[in-house]
Amino acid sequence: MNAPVNFSADKLYDVIVVGGGPAGLTAALYLARARYRVLVVEKTGFGGQITITHEVVNYPGVFNTSGYDLTETMRKQAESFGAEFLLAEVESLDMNGDIKTVRTSRGELYAFGVLLATGAHPRAVGFKGEEEYKGRGVAYCATCDGQFFTGKDVFVIGGGFAAAEEGVFLTKFARKVTILIRKDDFSCAESVAEHARNHPKITVLTNTTVEEVSGQMGLNYIRYKNTKTGEVTEFRAAEGEHFGVFVFAGYQPATALVKGLVDLNEQGYVVTDSDQRTNVPGLYAAGDLCVKPLRQVVTAVGDGALAATELEKYAAAMQEKTGLVPKPPAAKEHTAPAAAPAPKAEESAPASEELFTADMKAQLDAVFARMERPLVLKLYLDSRPVSAELEGYMTALAALTDKLTVEVAQRNAPSELAPCVKVTLTDGTETGLAFHGVPGGHEFTSFVLGLYNAAGPGQSMDADVAADIAALDKDVEVKVLVSLSCTMCPELVTAAQRIAAASPRVTAEVYDINHFEAIKDKYNVMSVPCLVINDTQVSFGKKNIRQVVDLLK
Ligand SMILES: Cc1cc2nc3c(=O)[nH]c(=O)nc-3n(C[C@H](O)[C@H](O)[C@H](O)COP(=O)(O)OP(=O)(O)OC[C@H]3O[C@@H](n4cnc5c(N)ncnc54)[C@H](O)[C@@H]3O)c2cc1C
Question: How far is 451 from 146, CA to CA, in rounded Å?
């Protein structure tokens, strides 16, 4: 057997899956169920691109769900069979020998077989102003940013499924939606196109390309051209008004990791055979990054299942050849989980058993058990119902453990502060972590991780990141502006709060902008997540801990 230099058997998996979208999660489910040791490595958040859509209605057997709920169920289903998960970026692959090396941002791992399921990301169109106004009117996620354009005009660029479906979704907020299609019609299924075409709030302009957008406090100018007639249209928002431009113009395969390693087609998609095998022995591919005619969840999961069954055979042969048999963890009880609750406004203080399911309580117990020191949840409240909601939520959470106590610091706190929960040590020392609003929805997990990081030992960190945090020599005040429906926000929140927990020089306060209009206006926010450093440096989009540390430096 030829093994890598630093090989250690406890880091050996039958299969490592790169990418935790529908394709990767399905493959993990199949492999784990067949009792192979499988690890899914995901760089941002499990679930993949579908998590940015609010409504999935074309996944057979599930009438109507959100992208997040659908894939979180897939993840839990795979976990229940014994699949393992790691939040890290795969940086390179060494596919030589019987044992392959997968280098990640959190160290080297080993596997007999590797499944590439890195999917795709939105393609920028390249019109003038697109890059400059990202987060200031140019957006790529309707679920995250649609509400910023309530009562305003919205332009949607693209003619595929995403443009048609998200265009209809945006009518919930926008006064009017104009869909600009480069070709002479939609390229998606007729029923989806029809829905958009017939919507009273939607206008569809075909053979149209955007040339430029601009503005001051947000976008107030767009110029587009009819490529058939040559007619150029300039649209200016009324005085003091702004509008949104949502780009859904196709995707780029995420194949940078394997460029030069596997065969790609001219557009950069991975070429596989009908068993999802690439030209490199032991390397398989599934999902949106493959050459295929339809990129949807249903085809991604089909690829994932097929690749997994082929990888089972490959791993079994390698076990026999090397004599090494990776040991998967025991499967858990296979029960349907419930999603994290998004608490509703106007509710009185709920009992903990109503808010947290048995499954959530078990996961919370595991986190609380590892917390090194107790914490105090210090509340700053006002007379709004959302303050009562925060008090009820925190009281219910603290009732689950003796590591947390709730203390009301102020009942008539100013509106720029309340509702707020600050995390302190029992001697009153501030940890620098605070959440303004109610940390439910997609922020629940990041809030709990924040508690774990504040109490110690906290999530592990790369040595170079830890060294850079320790070297920060000035006080830094970080604000993260989020909304609870944003699936891109938790990664940035977790990163900022991990840094704050590790450094006495950094504070990280999170604001649910739905309750803090003034702060939204102050920084002219039209997209979340929004990161504000020392009240001056404002940036948009998801970021990992390395990227945040680089900005703080
Ligand atoms: C707005 C929108 C709406 C959509 N609506 C629908 C719909 O209604 N129905 C439907 O069927 N489909 C829909 N789709 C398409 C669907 O989301 C995709 O077909 C599907 O997600 C593809 O799954 P995947 O697993 O191949 O890739 P992805 O979902 O793209 O997942 C790939 C994952 O790999 C991770 N990754 C990438 N590189 C690395 C690395 N180096 N290390 C670690 N992790 C990495 C990424 O972070 C990502 O999470 C929609 C897509 C969008 C954007």
Answer: 30
CA proximity to 28, closest of 115, 102, 118: 115
CA distance 117 to 387: 43
Q: How far is the CA of 210 from the centre of ligand 1 (A)?
A: 26
Instruction: Please provide the DSSP assignment of 500-530 as one string.
Output: HHH-TTEEEEEEEGGG-HHHHHHTT--SSSE
Report how far residue 363's alpha carbon sits from residue 495's, in angstroms, rounded to the nearest whole number: 21
Q: In this predicted model, what pLDDT tens digit does every residue of 371-401 receive, in sequence order?
A: 999 999 999 999 999 999 999 999 999 999 9
Place of tokens 């990054």: 289
Residue 80 reports pLDDT greater than 90: yes
Tokens standing for residue 232: 């150029």
Q: Which two tokens stand for residue 4?
A: 């890598």
Ligand 1 within 6 A of CB of 433: no
pLDDT at 293: 83
Q: Which two tokens stand for residue 339?
A: 């999603």
Name residue 185's beta-bridge partners.
Answer: none
Q: What is the rounded distance in angstroms from the CA atom of residue 282 to the CA atom of residue 42?
A: 20
Mutate to test the pocket of ligand 1, among 69, 118, 156 (most ligand atoms within 8 A of CB): 118
Q: Which region among 325-334, 436-445, 500-509 has the lowest average model confidence (pLDDT)?
A: 325-334
One-letter amino acid at 398 equals A
Question: What is this structure's pTM?
Answer: 0.70
Calpha distance 238→159 (Å, rounded)? 27
Asked if residue 346 has pLDDT above 80, the reply is no
Angle at Cα 524 formed by Cα 520 and Cα 528, nearest 5°? 65
Closest ligand 1 atom to 90 CA: 42
CB 405 within 8 A of CB 451: no
DSSP state of 76: H
Residue 41 one-letter amino acid: V
161-170 helix and 190-197 helix, angle to the nearest 10 degrees = 30
End-to-end Cα distance, the chain: 45
